[in-house]
Amino acid sequence: MTSDASTRPHIDRYEPTEIEPRWQARWNEIGLYRTDLNDTTKPTYYVVTMYPYPSGDLHIGHWSIMATTDAVARYHRMLGKNVFFPMGFDAFGLPAENAAINSGVHPAKWTFANIEVMRRQLRTMGNMFDWDAEVVTATPEFYRWNQWFFLKFLENDLAYRKMQAVDWCPKDQVVLAREQVLGVERVCWRCGTQVIKRDLEQWFFRTTKYADEYLDYTGLDWPEPIRLMQTNWVGRSEGAEIIFETAPDAFQPGGAELPVFTTRPDTLFGATFMVLAPEHPLVAKLTHPGQQAALDAYLHETRRKSEIDRLSTDREKTGVALGAEAINPINGERIPIWIADYVLSGYGTGAIMSVPAHDERDFAFATRFGLPIRQVIAPAGTTAGSMESAHIAHTADEVLVDSGRFTGMPAPEGARAITKALEEKGRGKSSITYRYRDWLVSRQRAWGTPIPIVYCQADPSCGVVPVPEAELPVLLPEDFEFRPQGGNALEFDERFTKTTCPRCGGPGRRETDTLDTFVDSSWYWWRYLTPHKSDGPFDRALTDRWCPVDQYTGGSEHAVLHLMYARFFAKALNDLGMVSEREPFLRLFNQGQILGEDGERMSKSRGNVQDPDELVSRFGADSVRLFLMFMKPWEADAPWSPTGIQGVNRFLNRVWAVTLDPHHGDPRSKVEVTDPEAAAQELRTLAHRTLRDVTEDHEGFRYNTIIAKLMELSNALVRYRGTAVARSAAWDETIDLLVRMLAPIAPHIAEELWSRRLAASGAEWSSVHVQSWPAFDPSLVAVDSIELPVQVNGKLRDLVPMAAGLTQAEIEPLVMAREKIRAQLEGKQVVRVVHVPGRLVNIVVR
RNA sequence: GCGGAAGUGGUGGAACGGCAGACACGCUGGCCUUAGGAGCCAGUGCCCGCAAGGGCGUGAGGGUUCGAAUCCCUCCUUCCGCACCA
């Protein structure tokens, strides 16, 4: 029945480099991916993946994130939703400025040239980006709204300026937000240089206002690790603030309040000394003249120490007694006041009550300096004894001992009772402290959003003056004069700095710091909806319809950076009545990293970088997309395999062949089909089961198994190729399903095959990407006959073919009749038979 | 130190508490080819065996269960985040 070579149609080879640009051009031409944001006939689905920095080099990691997110978007489009999937560029930032300092090229020129290159690279992926919505943050039309938000925040006490010891990167010559300083080594998140502390007056956004709200993920589908990192970063601690008072002595009158924060007010009777941070404001006042020299030496030493030395936990504790005493408000006891650098000025009140019996750090300090240790907590049923080990864990059955009228109370109750007693005396209250800090947004760099502030030089009563809204944007100069030694070019550019005070009209100087580029990424998803709107940052009707973002994807390195800032903006803008939601992203997914072949992070210096452009020219974008999805679970990290991509390339070649040339199977690879109808039915069943599984896997982002299952289906097609099965309706249906299932993940080949099939059937062309996602036939997915695994004592011994859905009574005779089973049961006694319907039978023998 | 994730063939990885190793890569042998970074066939966890078959196997050790890669406990290793936060 096979046709001979002369009737065989000419089938060209799968040539992705021909197909892919052709379809990309066509899609672009017909506006296939232009989303009508006002279409209300379909449910909206908003997909965003973190936009890239325009380094001018799209790397394989971008492909992994963006191509897979594209599959998400396309899948939802096929489900009948109105999907919006935009792309933009995080265009402000240091690399452009550093390039400018080195080469003299204007950062805008460098940046926009890179964007041009990256747009081209991005287009080769074949993603359904709606380029009409593109956002470029370094354009005045975008950054003026950064300035506008800054002014709104200022008006509403969400932005403020203060002097503070801040983290300074000496290489980039810029301050960093707390969360932009990484690890124990305390290095700059961008360049890896160790930061130092500097006292500077800087602008902050009041992110801590929402500290508690960040802990609430109600309604959000976010990965647990991210939620934990954010929760730890906020670092909420419940406890009490307790006000100690200085005792009068010959050198000071006493009566000064010394509030401390503690999570264990129940240990108040165990406080045997107090410790202030060296920077504590009362240190100078309380120092006994006899201690002045020792104190000065210690303060000097502390300042000299690097942050790292100071924060090192295994360093021996150091400190100096002030020579003054404090009064414990619960029992009037006088205890000595020390300073030590293990107490941090920035946390709590910068002072602690020291309870060495129940805190390891206090214990270490007390031991070092011979200070008393007094146990006030003990497991129920024991009495206070000599304390040898530090810190008893908070357990349910521990009780207060040696604690006056509170003795005998369970610890939690004691904590409440002591707090209440203090509150009645006005000496304390329950209190919550956070480790979280406000976001420092000032940056001493020229290539960023100018902070819209003028410092009046005429009238001190004007002082720090916001630029009026009507005068926005404060534009960056058209040309910078960068100095080779670096530094902020805005600072010495008089055309920029020289201005007039908006309040009094006198001479003024502009703020030369710019905003952290993370401000840009804190609201760009709203801007995508109206990227060129000039009378507001976004359109409320559209943000209401489309936001929050349904699906957001990106790397987990932004757990406490971008993602926290974005949540802050949603909450702040909601409070200001600008948006309806309080959370930006409903569902978040963090993909893992593609590592180099050596298993290390890809980097130019290691020489283990994979160039996607080169891979595309060899294998085509679809193969690159597919391999990135196939090689690992999306969320996992895995090394690149230079040979692995050939597997998916072969797969696409086979799909090409079975689709376009079904009747010319290789005689060696095809199977002997004795019952074509049964075989066709089997193929159809496999197709529908594949569809069911692939649909489920889409919902769970399991792209690696989607591709494995499509490979299995195509392998089955290869086996039946050239047989009678290839002439069946089932074959045709299977090919149709296969092409549709391929569409979200390999959009070009799917489109090409789809269009050729339409042409062959004489149908009018319509893109595969506007087809619906098929529904599987439940009756086909149901199983009617099975090979039931049979275990004896938990070990697999046989597979017994039988009809599905039999009862245990029906199954047992079938199983017992099997020779292999009989052999296993020989001379043994059957204790019980476990039957898991449809799964297996386990015969337990003795 | 605290918190998290993860340990499965030569490799990447599959497996609602129920047939471990799907699907690939690589490798071995063979076919085809002027050629191949092409295609096809067969094999490929380890051990014994010609085979049939059997034994052992998911970082280590315990436990729960008829049954554990999967659940629980104790370790070990790797990676990530935080780190004197009172």
Give descriptors for this structure:
alpha+beta, Rossmann fold, 4 domains, 4-stranded parallel sheet, 35% helix, RNA-binding
How would you describe this protein?
With 846 residues, this protein is of the alpha+beta class. It folds into 4 domains: 16-144 and 520-595, Rossmann fold (3-Layer(aba) Sandwich); 237-433, Valyl/Leucyl/Isoleucyl-tRNA synthetase, editing domain (Isoleucyl-tRNA Synthetase, domain 2, Alpha-Beta Complex); 643-780, Isoleucyl-tRNA Synthetase, Domain 1; 783-845, Ubiquitin-like (UB roll) (Roll), CATH 3.10.20.590. Helices cover 35% and strands 19% of the residues. The chain contains 26 helices and 34 strands. Strands 10, 11, 12, 13, 14, 15 and 18 form a 7-stranded mixed beta sheet that branches. Strand 5 (159-169) and strand 6 (174-176) form a beta hairpin. Helix 3 crosses helix 4 and helix 19 packs parallel to helix 23. The longest helix has 24 residues, at 676-699. The protein is globular, with a radius of gyration of 35 Å. It starts with 15 loop residues before the first helix and ends with a strand. 42% of the residues are buried. The chain binds one RNA strand of 86 nucleotides through helix 7, strand 11, strand 15, helix 11 and strand 30.
